[in-house]
User: Which sequence fits this backbone?
C-alpha cells in the first residue's frame, strides 16, 4: 500500500449517475502530490477554455493530500478545484474542519463531480458505500440546517459539506461550507455556485479507514517533539484567533478601509480578536490534526443578535464585512458572518461587493429603489445584513452584487468600474498591497485572482523571517527590489501547502524548520526520499500548471495587474500613507525569475525543466 | 475690428447645404483663444457621448487662431478638432503648411463641417464665396492628384486640404493632408475618416484679407529682433529637419524599435536627417510664417524608388515606419512616406499597425493568406509598402489594421492584445516612455490618447531647460519625483500652442523667453493685456475642457494607463536598458496637482477656478 494514500479517486457523474474509482500511479502522485496540485492537473485535462463553469462539463474536484488523515500536524484540510464561474479561469478554495479527513478515511484521496443532476441530490459516502440520494427535503435549507438534517438521517458521526441558498441560486460568490455550525468554508472563486449548478446540495461523509504511514514510529516521534513547540509558537493565535492581528494590521496600513480608500480605522480595537475574546468568547475550535486552535466559537447573550452561537468571524471577515464597510460593531459583523455561513457565501467577496455597493450608493450610482429601501451608508449594520440576504436570493441590487464586483461594475457602468477592486474577477481580500509591496505582485500573479494565501509573503516583510527560503531577516515592506524572487519562492512553498494539504499557519509554528519538517513528515508518511529542493520544485511545477490553465483561458500579462485604486491612489494617512507599489518593475523581474516570457507565458525550457512538456 | 481675428466662424452643413457664419464674442475668444481651445469648446457643446464619429452628427472643425495670418513667427498652423473614430473620444490633429493661413485670409477663424453629403463634394472658399461643389471627378484620387486637379480648376494660387483614398474608405487612421506634394498632415485620431464620412473630398481656399494687428509696429519690431535669433537657435533643424535628432534619440533608448521591444537600432545612422540630407536632399520647406524651416524636400534619383520627389520623412515617420518595423532603408521609408501622404494616412499609426502586424506574423497569429502573400518579416520593405496599400483599400489584413491596433488586436484575439501599443485607442508615437519618464504620464493623460506633442516635456528631461516654467535646469529623465507638476505645466503651455496655433519648435527658438514672447505677440496682435499667468491658466482651462469631453465619454482613471509592454518590460539594452516608469506614483501626484479627484475628474472648485462651471 502506498504510504499516505488510500490510492483512490472517486468519480461521480451526476448526469449519468455513473460512479467510478480511479487510481493514480505513484509517479503522478509524487509529481503533483494531491490537493490543488493534482486537482489542477485533472482540471487542465478534463476541462477546456470553452467549458462553461456552470455547465455540466465543468468538474468539481474535492481533494485531500498525502498527509491528510495521518498524524502530521495541521495537515487535515481539503481543497476544492474547479473552473470558476466568478472569474472564468482556474479556481480553487480550501477549507479546514474535519471533512477532508473524513473523505480520506472513507477511502478517497479525492472526489470528482461531473455532469449535472436533473433534481437536487446529495452524496453519501461511507467507505465503499457511495450513494446519490434525493435532496428535495434539504434543498432550500441553509448549511447549518442541512448539516443537522443529514445527521438526523445518517447519524451524528457524519461530517458534511454543503451549499446554502447562495450556491443553490448560482450566486457567483457562493461558498461550499463544511462542518456545520463551525462555519468552515471553501469560499473563494464561487465554488458553491458550481456545486449548485450540478444540483448537488451536500456531501455527507463517514470514514473508518486509516491512511497508512510507512514510518509511523518516526512520524510519531517528530509529532511528539513538535506538538508543544508549535503550540508555544502560536499562543496568540490560540488565544485570540486570526483576528489577534487586527491592531497590528491596522497600524501598518494593511487593513482595507471604506472600499480601500481609508488609511486609518480608529475603532479597529472594537473588532480585534482581543475584544472578541473578552466580549463574546465561548471556546476554541480545532480543525482535524490541528494543535494551533485559531478557531473560536462565540456566543452573543444580549442585544439585537442575542442567541447567536457559533464560529467567531475571522480576520478576513472582520476586515471585509467590517472595516471595509466602515462597520465596527463586532456583534453585527458576527451576525453577518453567521448569515454568510448559513447561506454559504464567501465573506471576503461579500464584504467586497457590499463595500462596493456602499460606494456606489454614496456616489449616487444606485439608490433606495435598487436596495429595497436599505440605506447603503458606510457603517450601516442593517444594510450589511440586508444585503447579504438580497445577494443570496438575487433580489434587487443583490442580483448584480452576487455576480461579483467586476460584472456588477460593468453593468452599473459609469464610474463604477473605477472602484471595483478585483484581480481577474476575484475580489481583493483583506490585505492592502500599498502596505506590503510583495502583495501587489502576489495579487497580480496569483492563479485564482487576488489572493492573500497564494504567496502569504506579506508576513515576511512584516516582522517574520524565512531563512529556509534565503531570507534570514524580514524584508522592508516598501522595497521593490528583490520582491519578485521573494514572491515566487513563497508561491512555490504555498503551492505545496495547498497540495499536501495543510494549514499555512504551520509556518508560524515550525518557523525556521518549516520546509525541513514538512519534507520529513512527507517522507515518513510516504516512504519517499524527497529533498527540500524537490519539494520546492514540485511547488514551482504546480504554480506553473495553474498558470498554463489560465493561459489557455486567454489570460496573459495584460491581466496580471491591479485595480487603479491600488496602483495610483495613496491614502495619505495611516501606517502606509504614501505607499504605492511599482508593480511593473516587480512583474518584469518575476517573469524572468520564473522563466516565463514577456507575456507571462512559461518558456519551453521552463516547462521542460519542470517536466510539464 | 478685433485684433488677430477676422471674427467669423464658417458653418457648412453638408446634409442641408446650409452655409452660415457665426461670430464669437471677445470674452469667449480670450477664454479659449482659438485652435484646439475654441475647437474643444465647440465640440463639447455640439456633440455628445452618443455621437457616432462617422455619423452625420459628428462635426469636423478646422480652426486657426489669433496669431495665424499675422506677422507672429511660426504661428501659421491650423488645428482639426472632431470626435475621433479611432478612439471614440476627443480627437485633434494639427498641421503646418499654408492652408490655415489661407483659411484665415479668406476671412475665417474657423470652419465647422456638419452633416453628410449624399455624394462626393469639395468646398471652395474664396473670401465671401463659399461653394459646395461636385467632387465626382476627384473622388478616388490621391491627395497630390487632388491638389493638382483643383489647382487646374481654380487656379494655381489656391491651397487645398484633402483626404486620399484612405479617408474616403473610412480607414480609422486616415489623415487630412494639405499643401499638395508638401505632404503636410493633420494626421492623428483618424480625422481623415470623419472627412470621408461626410463625403467631403477637399477644401480649396484662397484668401486676400489680412488679419488686423492692433500694435503692428511693436510686433514688427519684435519679429525683426527675434527672427535671426530663432534661426540661430534652430540651425540643426534647419539643416537636417526633425530627423536630425535620430542618433541622439536612439542613443538615449527613446526610439521605438521592433514594435517597442528593442533597445538598440544599430543602423539608426542610415535613417538620420544627416544621412537624408547627404543622400537625398533637394531643398528646404517653410510653413507659413516660419523662420525655422525644418521641412525638407528630397529627390531619389536611382534605384527602385527613382523619380520620387517630395517631402522628406519626418523623425516620427522614420521612427514608426522605419525603426519600429526594423527598416533602415531610408529610400524605402521615403517611398512609404510618400504613399501615406498620397493615400492620406497617419504615418505614426500606420507604422504602429504595420509593426504590430509584423509581430503578429512572426508569432503566427496571421500568415500569408491574410497578407495577400506578403511576408511580413521585420525589415521587409516590400511588405511595408504593400501593407500601406492594403490598409488604404481595406484589403486582406489591411482591413483590420486600418481599424487601429486596439480593434485589430481585439479581433485577432489571443496574444495580440499583449503587443498592441496604444493609449485610449491611439497608437503610441515615436518616443519611448521608458527612456523619459515624463512621457509615461504625458501619454497616459493626453486628451487624445498616446501623444508626444501634448506635453512635449521629454525634451526638457533630455538636455533642455525651461526656467519660465520653473525648471532652470533639465530634469533627470529616470526620476519620477516632481514629474507630475512638470508634465501638467508643459501640457498647459502646449495647449496654448495648439490654440494660437503655433509650431512647438518655437520653444527651441525662443528658449528662455518663450512664454514672455508669446504673450507679447498675442497682446500686440489682439490689444489685450494678457499676462503669462493668464495665458498659462488659459492653457490649463483648455486641458481641463478636453478632459471633460473624455469624461463624458466614460473615460476615467482606468483609461489613464499605458500598455503593459511599457509598464512591465525592460529592454535590457541601449540607453534606457532598465527603464520602467512608475506611472501610478506620477498619476497620483498629477491628479492632485491638477485639482482632479481620485478618478481623474476635475473637482468642482477646479472648474470654478477655471471658469468652466
Assistant:
Amino acid at each position: 500500500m502506498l504510504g499516505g494514500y488510500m490510492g483512490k479517486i472517486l468519480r461521480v457523474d451526476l448526469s449519468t449517475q455513473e460512479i467510478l474509482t480511479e487510481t493514480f500511479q505513484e509517479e503522478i502522485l509524487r509529481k503533483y502530490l494531491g490537493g490543488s496540485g493534482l486537482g489542477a492537473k485533472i482540471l487542465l485535462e478534463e476541462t477546456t477554455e470553452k467549458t462553461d463553469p456552470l455547465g455540466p462539463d465543468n468538474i468539481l474536484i474535492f481533494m485531500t493530500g498525502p498527509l491528510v488523515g495521518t498524524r502530521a500536524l495541521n495537515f487535515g484540510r481539503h481543497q476544492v478545484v474547479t473552473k470558476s464561474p466568478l472569474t472564468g479561469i482556474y479556481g480553487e478554495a480550501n477549507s479546514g474542519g474535519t471533512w477532508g479527513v473524513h473523505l480520506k478515511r472513507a477511502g478517497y484521496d479525492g472526489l470528482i463531480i461531473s455532469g449535472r443532476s436533473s433534481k437536487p441530490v446529495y452524496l453519501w459516502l461511507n467507505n465503499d458505500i457511495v450513494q446519490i440520494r434525493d435532496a428535495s427535503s434539504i434543498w432550500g435549507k441553509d448549511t447549518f440546517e442541512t448539516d443537522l438534517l443529514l445527521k438526523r438521517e445518517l447519524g451524528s458521526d457524519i461530517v458534511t459539506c454543503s451549499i446554502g441558498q447562495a450556491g443553490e441560486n448560482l450566486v457567483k460568490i457562493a461558498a461550499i461550507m463544511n462542518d456545520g455550525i463551525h462555519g468552515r468554508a471553501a469560499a473563494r472563486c464561487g465554488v458553491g455556485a458550481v456545486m449548485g449548478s450540478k444540483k448537488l446540495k451536500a456531501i455527507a461523509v463517514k470514514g473508518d479507514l486509516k491512511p497508512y504511514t510507512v514510518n509511523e514510529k518516526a512520524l510519531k516521534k517528530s509529532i511528539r517533539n513538535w506538538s508543544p513547540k508549535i503550540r508555544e509558537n502560536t499562543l496568540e493565535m490560540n488565544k485570540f484567533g486570526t483576528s489577534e492581528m487586527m491592531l497590528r494590521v491596522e497600524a501598518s496600513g494593511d487593513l482595507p478601509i471604506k472600499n480601500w480608500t481609508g488609511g486609518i480605522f480608529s475603532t479597529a480595537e472594537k473588532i480585534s480578536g482581543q475584544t472578541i475574546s473578552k466580549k463574546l468568547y465561548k471556546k476554541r475550535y480545532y480543525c482535524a490534526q490541528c494543535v494551533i486552535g485559531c478557531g473560536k466559537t462565540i456566543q452573543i447573550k444580549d442585544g439585537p443578535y442575542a442567541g447567536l452561537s457559533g464560529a467567531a468571524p475571522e480576520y478576513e471577515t472582520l476586515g471585509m464585512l467590517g472595516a471595509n464597510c466602515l462597520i465596527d460593531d463586532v456583534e453585527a459583523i458576527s451576525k453577518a458572518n453567521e448569515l454568510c455561513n448559513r447561506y454559504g457565501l464567501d465573506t471576503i467577496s461579500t464584504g467586497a461587493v457590499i463595500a462596493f455597493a456602499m460606494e456606489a450608493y454614496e456616489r449616487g450610482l444606485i439608490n433606495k429603489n435598487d436596495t429595497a429601501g436599505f440605506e447603503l451608508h458606510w457603517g450601516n449594520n442593517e444594510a450589511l445584513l440586508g444585503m447579504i440576504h438580497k445577494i443570496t436570493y438575487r433580489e434587487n441590487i443583490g442580483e448584480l452584487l452576487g455576480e461579483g464586483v467586476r460584472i456588477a461594475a460593468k453593468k452599473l457602468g459609469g464610474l463604477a468600474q473605477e472602484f471595483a477592486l478585483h484581480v481577474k474577477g476575484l475580489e481583493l481580500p483583506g490585505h492592502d498591497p500599498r502596505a506590503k509591496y510583495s502583495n501587489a505582485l502576489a495579487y497580480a500573479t496569483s492563479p485564482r485572482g487576488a489572493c492573500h494565501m497564494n504567496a502569504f509573503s506579506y508576513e515576511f516583510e512584516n516582522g517574520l523571517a524565512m531563512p529556509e527560503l534565503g531570507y534570514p531577516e524580514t524584508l522592508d515592506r516598501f522595497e521593490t527590489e528583490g520582491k519578485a524572487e521573494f514572491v515566487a519562492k513563497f508561491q512555490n512553498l504555498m503551492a505545496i501547502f495547498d497540495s499536501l494539504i495543510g494549514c499555512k499557519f504551520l509556518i508560524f509554528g515550525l518557523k525556521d524548520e518549516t520546509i525541513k519538517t514538512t519534507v520529513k513528515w512527507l517522507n515518513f508518511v510516504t516512504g519517499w526520499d524527497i529533498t527540500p529542493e524537490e519539494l520546492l520544485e514540485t511547488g514551482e511545477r504546480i504554480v506553473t500548471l495553474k498558470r498554463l490553465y489560465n493561459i489557455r483561458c486567454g489570460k496573459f500579462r495584460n491581466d496580471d495587474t491591479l485595480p487603479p485604486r491600488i496602483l495610483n491612489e495613496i491614502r495619505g494617512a495611516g501606517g502606509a500613507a504614501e505607499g504605492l507599489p511599482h508593480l511593473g518593475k516587480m512583474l518584469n523581474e518575476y517573469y524572468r525569475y520564473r522563466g516565463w516570457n514577456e507575456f507571462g507565458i512559461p518558456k519551453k525550457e521552463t516547462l521542460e525543466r519542470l517536466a510539464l512538456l
